[in-house]
Amino acid sequence: MYYKVSKDTVVYAMSAHNKPVVTVDAPARIQFETWDCFSGQIQLDNAKFDGVDWNCINPATGPVYINGAEEGDILAVTIDKIETAEAGIVVCGKGVSVAGDSLQRSIKVVPVKNNTALFSERLHLPLTKMIGVIGTAPKSGEVSCAIPDMHGGNMDCKEIKEGATLLLPVNVPGALLAMGDLHAVMADGEVGGSGLEISGCITVSVKVIKGITAPLPMLFNNTHVMTIASDEDLDKAVELAVSNMVTYLSSAGSFTREEAIMLCSLVADARICQVVDPKKTIRVELAKKYLPEGINLVF
Ligand code: CA
Ligand code: ZN
């Protein structure tokens, strides 16, 4: 079945208490229309921070209730397509950028044409379209859409892009999937404090997996498997992402944890997704060809 979710209904925090706006029967294909991370408050023809309501940033469209998704299941979300608008915004400044103390708060509007972002007359950057915020409801309480954690959220991971499959936990009945905050271009680190923030449309396929546990969130693409973890402290985020990969690799029983981390040390890259959100995000990437035999969760 094919479903559409309009950007008229957004949440600014992920929570079990958010009212679902669309209910789907999985497996399902769902199109989410999304705002940019400023909820469209910044005009592209006259970009200014004046008047921006900072309580209305990082909106996620949804949430969507997935019939049959129960606590303890895994929600597999395959990103089929990301379409972006004709221009986006990149920002920087004190309190926003890494080492931003000497920077003025600034905004730059960047037109997008023919799959490139026109940063300047000379610099046409190839698009690296990705989803900044994507997650399910946490077990309890609410988590602001600005924050990444085990339920997903503002991971700002550039590998959450077309063709990849993200595995998220189902913490509450129906999972309550929501997403937004597209970036037309973003590099690892997101050091200025934003990607090329842009509105658009995301088409995903969702599937519910039962009877398997995994250290979530995890991400798969054609060649690699990744664990993703976030923490206020970058060292702790690395620790968690590595330990999750070790847990995954030893889950089949053919590797001990010691062998698993030795393998990671040799061929898995620990990479920074972003260092500018309230929690920083790390991913550990391992080529699928190195996966141990018998591992039971591969996409
Ligand atoms: Ca973001
Ligand atoms: Zn963003």
Topology, number of strands = 23
Characterize the largest beta sheet: strand count, sense, and whether it forms a barrel: 9 strands, mixed
What's the overall average pLDDT, rounded? 96
Ligand names: calcium ion, zinc ion
Q: Regions with pLDDT < 50 over 5+ consecutive residues?
A: none
Helix-strand category: mainly beta
CATH topology of the largest domain: Jelly Rolls
Strand order of the largest sheet: 1-5-19-7-16-20-21-23-22
Task: Tell me the domain tally.
Answer: 2
How would you explain this protein's 3D organization?
The chain has two domains: 3-209, Sandwich (Jelly Rolls), CATH 2.60.120; 218-290, Endonuclease I-creI (Roll). The longest helix has 17 residues, at 234-250. The strands form four sheets. The protein has a nine-stranded mixed beta sheet. β9 (106-113) and β10 form a beta hairpin. Helices cover 9% and strands 41% of the residues. It has two helices and 23 strands. The protein is mainly β and 299 residues long. The mean pLDDT is 96. The chain has helices spanning 234-250, 257-267, and strands spanning 2-5, 10-11, 13-15, 22-25, 28-34, 60-67, 74-84, 87-92, 106-113, 116-118, 124-126, 130-135, 142-144, 148-149, 152-154, 165-169, 177-183, 197-198, 200-209, 218-220, 224-231, 269-274, 280-287. The structure holds calcium ion and zinc ion. Zinc ion (ZN) binds next to β17.
